[in-house]
Amino acid sequence: MFTYDPVLFSRMLTGLTLIVHIVYATIGVGVPVMIALAEWIGIKRNDPYYLLMARRWARGFTVTVAVGVVTGTAIGLQLNLLWPNFMRVAGQAIALPLFMETFAFFIEAIFLGIYLYTWDRFKNRYLHFWLLIPVAAGSCASAFFITTVNAFMNAPQGFDLIDGKMENIDPIFAMFNPAMPTKVGHVLVTAYVTVSFCLGAIAALAMLRGRRHVYFKKCLRLTMVCALVFSLASTLIGDLSGKYLHAYQPEKLAAAEWHFETTDKAPLIIGGMLTDDHDVRFAIKIPFALSILAGGTPGTVVMGLDDVPQDHYPPLRTTHYLFDLMVFLGMYLLLVAVWYFIADIRNRKQGVPIHKILLMGVVLGAPFSVMAIESGWIFSEIGRQPWILWGVMRTAEGATTSPHVDTMLWLFAVLYLVLTITSARILIRMFKLNPVEEEIASLGLEGGPAS
Amino acid sequence: MSYELLGMTVLWIFLFGYLIVASIDFGAGFFSYYSVLTGKRQLIHSVIERYLSPVWEVTNVFLVFFIIGLVGFFPDTAYYYGTALLIPGSLALILLAVRGSYYAFSTYGSRDSKVYMFLYGISGLLIPAALSTILAISEGGYIIEENGAIAFSFTALFGNLYPYSVIILALVSVLYISAMFLTYYAAKAEDKPALEIVRTYALSWALPTILASLLVFYAIQRHNEQHFMNMLNYAWMFVLSFVFFLIAVILVWKRTNYGFAFIAVMFQFGFAWFGYGRAHLPYLLYPYLTIYDNFTNPAMAQALVIAFIAGLCILIPSLYLLLKLFLFNASYVKGMKKQKKA
């Protein structure tokens, strides 16, 4: 464990960067969409509260986007610094999406700069709204391109491997690989779910603390409706992801499900413990469910790990628990969103107040949704092991040989810690110093002269 | 033009773009901090902030674009530079991270901290120093390939005159370019007190820029004679660069046409930059790697060029819009339409 291994440290440093970056990247993908929705509703209904919502979200977004840019630059460079051998080989096939990702981000950065500094500068308010479209489109396109690269690592295609070199490359075919549709869909939709819950939690927390302003109610309704729609979509895409894994990476699915014998009517295993002899104990088994997840019918034959060489196994315990955690958290988010939807209808039709426990559930949804994203990504990355490029290149072959990766790991750990803490402190300060009620009063939205 | 040359030219243009916009940004950060120390902050701070606020994220992208493109067109650069540059690359990255995020924190976080200002100012000098070192490394002699393993020699790097000369030139140029731009911007904003200060900065960094360039010529001749001889073949480009330098300085000296003066500065650096780059070819890393070694496959090269052209079609109008709103819009520049953040 304590002998220096550049591969291990490279994995740790890349993992650390991604764990930090994915939080800010998710916010970066989701928040512009939410701001756009709020601003659009605000303009359309001429409702100043929604406009204020967009303004406040945008203000917070500037802070998270800064850390997102920085950590994104970090991962872009670390890909070359830590995985030079991987980039040397795979760079031949994935240069296109990486290149386009930069363009997409370029557009996003330019229009975000314009958007932030042009509130109230145009007479026609829709003009300002339209400036946000390139921001949202740019961030979603960034996510799309970068996810195609990750998908390529899971399902490489579009090249012939000749003497360790990729030849006869078809860049488009490489991008549109079988893993791409479900991965991109899952990444985008779960980003919207996460952001809905994070923004909704702020309003729910305010309401729990006894703040009664209609602003919070509107905020909570908008975010929870989005959460419901996107949670349903992510459940559907999650199901399709299972079918993708079954068809293209059955080893990964089998590892996630501790499924050892190739068989039909395979059960879905939840929780439990795995002995060293590959006995599953104390687990909840749902009959047929794995076969249904994999192929839609109980009769689907699901490949078991016994048909896979042992040195192709990903770490079995980690993958299984992370997979379960992701699914559990996803279900929790869906349930809360459904419950809120029902409670909101009853609240409007019969005046039944929103229950405190539900509000707490929404608040809890914020950390849970972030955890779901993290566990999903870590599951996906660890589940791909031992491959960096599925079936083509092992992770160990792709890493740097530099003797100093451990030092860099500590340096970056300190950097990320400082960045995370500072950005959180600044966000909290920013909104505590300027509560909604005061801003509404200072804008003269209530009682005072219309602005 | 071969794909190899086309790809490299495109990337070199982007790096030139980074050189200009980043120099303005780095130098402005430094001047901003310097003005705090000398108590002239209130005079020039608003001019600097008004320009920097909307464009800082854009600056970073130029650099990322260059790196991604370089590895895209020339995958072996990842192998050579990636292996050798883990430490300097990571350090530059940490500095960029500190700078980018702390700038946003202090501007949007509505907190005026001296520590932030210091980090912001000092990183503006350290980053160009770190990045220019990589240019120096490309001249060869510091990265050594032995028995299939890549090694990087810090002792060779820091025991040699050439890297120091490049670092000095980078620092001086950053301050010169930035001051020249701020002079133009302050003039446009009709902010007389600020103009006086930044104009003095610009003029005082002019001569050091030329002296530092001469030092680099001297050092490169001793370090990489072949490159130096190549540069002599393109001597006319360096002569033109000097001519534009004179134009820029004379205009600023005579207090006229600051806009033209800054364009002349861009031409000054443009000619020097492309003269240097052209003479550097075909090497990406002397003597191991040329642009013809393991160039990406033709299909990918074609796809990248198409993506690039399509990207430019969106990018150029967007950049134009950004500049139009914040650089060429007189009332914004003068601060009349200055809005509270968001």
From TrEMBL, chain A:
<keyword id="KW-1003">Cell membrane</keyword>
<feature type="transmembrane region" description="Helical">
    <location>
        <begin position="357"/>
        <end position="379"/>
    </location>
</feature>
<keyword id="KW-1133">Transmembrane helix</keyword>
<keyword id="KW-0813">Transport</keyword>
<dbReference type="InterPro" id="IPR002585">
    <property type="entry name" value="Cyt-d_ubiquinol_oxidase_su_1"/>
</dbReference>
<feature type="transmembrane region" description="Helical">
    <location>
        <begin position="220"/>
        <end position="238"/>
    </location>
</feature>
<keyword id="KW-0479">Metal-binding</keyword>
<dbReference type="GO" id="GO:0016682">
    <property type="term" value="F:oxidoreductase activity, acting on diphenols and related substances as donors, oxygen as acceptor"/>
</dbReference>
<dbReference type="GO" id="GO:0005886">
    <property type="term" value="C:plasma membrane"/>
</dbReference>
<feature type="transmembrane region" description="Helical">
    <location>
        <begin position="129"/>
        <end position="153"/>
    </location>
</feature>
<comment type="similarity">
    <text>Belongs to the cytochrome ubiquinol oxidase subunit 1 family.</text>
</comment>
<dbReference type="GO" id="GO:0009055">
    <property type="term" value="F:electron transfer activity"/>
</dbReference>
<keyword id="KW-0249">Electron transport</keyword>
<dbReference type="GO" id="GO:0070069">
    <property type="term" value="C:cytochrome complex"/>
</dbReference>
<feature type="transmembrane region" description="Helical">
    <location>
        <begin position="321"/>
        <end position="345"/>
    </location>
</feature>
<feature type="transmembrane region" description="Helical">
    <location>
        <begin position="184"/>
        <end position="208"/>
    </location>
</feature>
<keyword id="KW-0472">Membrane</keyword>
<dbReference type="GO" id="GO:0046872">
    <property type="term" value="F:metal ion binding"/>
</dbReference>
<keyword id="KW-0408">Iron</keyword>
<feature type="transmembrane region" description="Helical">
    <location>
        <begin position="61"/>
        <end position="82"/>
    </location>
</feature>
<dbReference type="Pfam" id="PF01654">
    <property type="entry name" value="Cyt_bd_oxida_I"/>
</dbReference>
<feature type="transmembrane region" description="Helical">
    <location>
        <begin position="12"/>
        <end position="40"/>
    </location>
</feature>
UniProtKB/TrEMBL annotation, chain B:
<keyword id="KW-0812">Transmembrane</keyword>
<dbReference type="Pfam" id="PF02322">
    <property type="entry name" value="Cyt_bd_oxida_II"/>
</dbReference>
<feature type="transmembrane region" description="Helical">
    <location>
        <begin position="198"/>
        <end position="220"/>
    </location>
</feature>
<feature type="transmembrane region" description="Helical">
    <location>
        <begin position="80"/>
        <end position="105"/>
    </location>
</feature>
<feature type="transmembrane region" description="Helical">
    <location>
        <begin position="299"/>
        <end position="328"/>
    </location>
</feature>
<keyword id="KW-1003">Cell membrane</keyword>
<keyword id="KW-0472">Membrane</keyword>
<keyword id="KW-1133">Transmembrane helix</keyword>
<feature type="transmembrane region" description="Helical">
    <location>
        <begin position="117"/>
        <end position="144"/>
    </location>
</feature>
<feature type="transmembrane region" description="Helical">
    <location>
        <begin position="55"/>
        <end position="74"/>
    </location>
</feature>
<dbReference type="GO" id="GO:0005886">
    <property type="term" value="C:plasma membrane"/>
</dbReference>
<protein>
    <submittedName>
        <fullName>Cytochrome bd-I ubiquinol oxidase subunit 2 apoprotein</fullName>
    </submittedName>
</protein>
<comment type="similarity">
    <text>Belongs to the cytochrome ubiquinol oxidase subunit 2 family.</text>
</comment>
<feature type="transmembrane region" description="Helical">
    <location>
        <begin position="164"/>
        <end position="186"/>
    </location>
</feature>
<feature type="transmembrane region" description="Helical">
    <location>
        <begin position="232"/>
        <end position="253"/>
    </location>
</feature>
<feature type="transmembrane region" description="Helical">
    <location>
        <begin position="260"/>
        <end position="279"/>
    </location>
</feature>
<feature type="transmembrane region" description="Helical">
    <location>
        <begin position="12"/>
        <end position="34"/>
    </location>
</feature>
<dbReference type="InterPro" id="IPR003317">
    <property type="entry name" value="Cyt-d_oxidase_su2"/>
</dbReference>
